[in-house]
Write a structure and sequence with these properties.
Oligomer: single chain
Shape: elongated
Order of helices and strands: HEEEEEEEEEE
Number of strands: 10
Helix content: under 10%
Length: 134
Amino acid sequence: MMKWAVAAAIALLSSGCATLPPFLQRWADLDVSTSSLTREDSKTGEGFRFYQDGFADVYPSRNDAPRVQWRVRGLWLEIDTTNDGTFHTRMRAVSFTKDRIIVVSATGKRSVWRNDRVVVVIKMIPQRPGFWMP
């Protein structure tokens, strides 16, 4: 009986981060789902704005460009910039601080990204009176 419990525990742990919802995935000690990354060593100002639903905005974007999916797989942050399920944009953090991340791409190219936290504001909305309230 103990062997089955150990086997089940190993199976659960080996499934990795891919089974976690996006808002629980961490990359480079960063909650990606509430972050915005802007490339500092680029003149185009490219960047990503991540959301908790597993999608991201890519900027600068083309007009009405759809959101793309992102995921954390092991040490890699993967972004499906072509929106075809291939996740070709891959970044692995080499070093990071609170607001800067140095990454290496899958091809070995290094780049520096600025991390800006996305502030989520929840406002109280007053209830509208109904027929039970004067």
